[in-house]
Design a protein that fits this description.
mainly beta; 11 strands; elongated; about 15% helix; eight-stranded antiparallel β-barrel; Porin; 2 helices
Length: about 220
């Protein structure tokens, strides 16, 4: 319920300000490359022998949504709201060999509030971003001995989280917006879950690089 209210308020706010012609507004879409943030879990006792769980390669996702902007001289404030898919992979390693690669993916609504400075068509921006997960797919569920790890990831990832974005962009002919950003967590390794009596740190927000294209109306 909190997630639905969070998204609804943001959409109404952006729609209202756009209609009042206070903000310019537009559409945006893009791709991201994200990676999970977690401690390596080593020496876990499995059914046959001990194994490790380590952070795997980055995963590619996408995003699409709305952007608005108010600009005063060289300074601007840019609230956005969009649907985003993110995540990463976890590798199971036995005797130094990767035996299983499992995807952990999240679908969520993100609302960044960026503050920036324009230099002609170019700009830089930074600000916080709040995220509400609406769905997750965790392939660790399919491995019985990983149920404790899977439950820990699911519990932490379902919470509302805060991060930050920072990047550069360019507005071409005042209509086409190209952006490159990095997104990180404001509470990195702030949560943990227990496996076989040992606590392991986990960041509920995957870090990611974001490339987007937008169009101002």
């Amino acid at each position: 319920m909190k997630k639905i209210l969070f998204v609804s308020i943001a959409v109404l706010f952006m729609a209202g300000t756009s209609q009042a012609q206070i903000f310019s507004y537009g559409l945006k879409a893009g791709v991201n490359f994200s990676q999970l943030g977690m401690d390596d879990l080593t020496g876990i006792t499995g059914t046959d022998q001990a194994y490790d769980l380590i952070t795997g390669e980055s995963a590619q996702g996408y995003q699409a949504g709305l952007m608005t902007r108010i600009k005063i001289a060289m300074v601007f404030v840019q609230p956005e709201v969009y649907f985003n898919t993110t995540g990463g992979t976890v590798e199971q390693v036995v005797a130094g060999e990767v035996t299983n690669v499992m995807d952990v993916n999240f679908s969520r609504f993100d609302i960044p509030l960026l503050v920036g400075v324009k230099f002609g068509p170019a700009r830089i921006n930074v600000g916080p971003v709040g995220s509400a997960v609406i769905n997750s797919v965790n392939e660790l569920d399919a491995v019985p001995e990983l149920k404790g790890v899977s439950d820990g990831l699911d519990a932490l990832s379902s919470e509302f989280t805060w991060g930050f974005q920072a990047g550069i962009g360019i507005d071409i002919l005042k209509k086409l917006a190209l952006d490159a950003r990095y997104e990180g967590s404001l509470s990195k390794y702030g949560e943990s879950f227990a496996v076989a009596g040992t606590d392991y740190n986990f960041d509920a927000r995957p870090s990611q690089w974001i490339l987007t294209v937008g169009w101002w109306f």
